[in-house]
Amino acid sequence: MNPVAELVDRAATLLPEQGPLQAFVHHNTLHAFEHLPFADAVARAAEVFGTQPYLSEATFHGFLADGRITPADIAAVVAAEVPDDGEPVVPGGPTARRFHELRLGALVEVPRGAALRWLLDETDAVDVTDPRWARLLTAEPPTGAAGTPAVRPRDRVLTETGIDADLLTHPLLIRLTAAFLDQGVAYWPMPDREHGLFAAFRSLYAGPGAVLDPFLRGLPAFLRDRSDWTAEHAVEWALDELDVAWSDREAVVTATLLSLRGWAGMVRQFEHRPDRAPVDPHPARLVDFLAVQLVLDVFALRYVRADVEPEPLAQHHHGTLERAYEAYVLARRMDVDLPDHAHAATWLAVVDRCDDLERRRLLHLAYERRHRVGVLDGLIAHQNVVEPTGKPAFQAVFCLDEREESVRRHLEESCPEVETFGFAGFFGVAMNYQGLDDVRARPLCPVVVTPTHHVTERAVDDVVPGRRLRAGWTNLLSVGSRTLARGGLLSIAMGAAGLASLVGRCLFPRAAHRWEHRSGHGGPKTRLETDFSVPEMADIVGTVARTAGFHRDQSPLVLIIGHGSSSMNNPHESAHDCGATGGGRGGPNARAFAMMANDPRVREVLAERGIPIPDGTWFVGGYHNTCDDTMRYYDEDLVPESHGEPLRQAKDSIAHACVLAAHERCRRFESTPTDLALEDALAHAEEHAVDLGQPRPEYGHATNAVAIVGRRARTRGLYLDRRAFLASYDVAGDNDDALLTALLGAVGPVCAGINLEYYFSFVDPAGYGCGTKLPHNITGLLGVMDGHASDLRTGLPWQMVEIHEPVRLLLVVEAAPDRLNAILNGHAVLNRLVGNGWIQFVSWCPDTNAVHVFQDGSFQPYAPERTEFPVVTRSAQVYAGERDHLGCAHVLTGAEVPVPVAAR
């Protein structure tokens, strides 16, 4: 491999893996660091990206004051994490563990720089006559690196002159890359785009008439004289010109790409996943992007050095005042005497070992512990609940998504004769899907899967003139609006209509939406066409049936319900869709699965495999919109007449459950009154979905914290506050652990990816998330920028994560520890996630109520702290009047509540 290509490939591992907006799929933001333990990874990433590893210490102390973290949590974490020989750290002082407990419980604000100097000079915060202060000031300073050395040539010039060359190069590079990757927003395509970004750059700027910024003097001649250069050649030349030593080239290439990691990452996505392009996968190469960036860097740095008067930056003096101040305040609080310099140096070392990063790490563990204890205690206490008996009236298979937890719970409360299941929302149907209105097919499956099968939606009637007429009119308006003459005329002609629509959508969003879509449900009758073979379809249906276990007591009617989300003016709409379908909507997958399960040829193969589906059972595909809580069902005209009434009753039950779920979900919106009437819930949810000015149409996965893999009977009737992914696993039907291994291999990484993206976007909204929505602009149908030109913002906006609790996923599996150990040892990805602490892993024994938590490389027995939880007859009794996250409760439909609902 070319040396430059090797450098680029290694640097690319640190780039975001976020695809274009329409294929936004949740993933571990720090995927490149998964080989490290979680604590080491977040610390290392903070150094590389300049980001935050945990919440601030002040935030944790707010949780401590509110009871979200308890002193018992801190004591338990310190006992597990801090070695202690029982001796005081200094004579007369606390032991190591006691020091950490006291330090974690004390918020010491340490002013920096001039602020601390002012505090010492102008206040009596420090008794300068105290001998401890003098000894701490004169104690030996710690050894170690003085700081992070400059890596890029741009960094050295910035240090020398105070001028940032990126302010010259980045705006141009952003415009070039946005134009190159543009998916049809621009009317005029970039010249020579079919030959790659570097070729297009040369075509634009080699001509004599090119409009150049002052720092690019000489660029046209340079490009003309080197018209035969490849991007690799240009990179090598630029690194030589910038005087980058061979030993530094990997670091410089990496730092250069990371300086615009959003755009660099999108180029990499187009290079390796062209199938995720919204319209046209242009021939993108990351080495082209690097070549353009380095060539621009060469000209910018020449310009800065030659034409700009240098203004050296003032060097920051790193003194010992802050360190001494913190140690002095702690010595006073803990009543520690420091009679000589040796004791002072020892005390400083103790304080240094419990630095800001270590304190935040331990407080984070205490924060997670309180949540873990609440969930595990609730699961253990719930096991006295009586399982439903009798044949179910109908069965419903939902996506395992935590947003469906409330729908399933409310459905079971209002319709006790139903049986629900959870499975990954692509339902095993990995396909390239092209709907009737889609420009091109898109993959609907987990992002790690490359589908080889195609499913197409076809109209039953071949001729649909009305749709073609509307499509032609839409194309005419789209093209015409971007031309000079027609654009002006169309703006005048359509301005009044557009203004009326805008006013309506702002003032009367629900009414305007319904008026504009009043004929939207009269589409043509369609069917799915697929190239799956019968054995392949039998594999899909059989795997889902055996894993979830819905074939064991088959009801005459089985609903397969995918999900997605639709909202107005929301660039991150696909981030609310189904992660199992690669950021798409799972309705087509549910419809395809039902079609396969109803196929007599498939049932014949399944019967031969010992998975019989009775002739009297019918499957119906459905789609749940999690934003407005509406339902849609497919191919109802094919439902046998004998199943018509059962289907109607099932639809009524699910519709009622959606109303209840909307009512529960709306409590999280600050704009919703806490006493919202049940009959107003759907209207309120719909208004959030269609309001043009609504920045929070749906909170998506913002409550995710738990994943439970096991039988629904063990969690049915347990209030989990829409926080748990629920994957059904038929324990009795898996003799060789093959089903559980496959299930955990999917559930673990997918749910961890969702959980970790929310974690990082909350912990550092600017560094890992994309900040607030307010300044966002969509560019090229690719992503969002702040304003008219910024790096492509990756991660989630603050309005999606603001109610999130950043805890690592608690994965609870109904299996014995020895079985799970064997699965971990044979599954590298899952072993890495669990072993390195990216998720919390729990064994929940099927035959007993024993729980074991994976800690320090092994499963350790868990003893509950709490055995009593609130008992209610409806979920509304738990969440009524509440906005914050809630604990577990028993929802015993039809039971007598022995005690009033306790405070959470």
TrEMBL record:
GO cellular component: plasma membrane
Keywords, ordered alphabetically: Cell membrane, Membrane, Metal-binding, Transport, Zinc
Record's bilayer topology term: Peripheral membrane protein
Residues the record lists as binding Zn(2+): C399, D401, H563, C578
HAMAP family: DabA
Family label: Belongs to the inorganic carbon transporter (TC 9.A.2) DabA family.
Protein name: Probable inorganic carbon transporter subunit DabA
Species in which this protein is naturally found: Saccharothrix violaceirubra
Organism ancestry: Bacteria, Bacillati, Actinomycetota, Actinomycetes, Pseudonocardiales
Encoding gene, per UniProt annotation: dabA
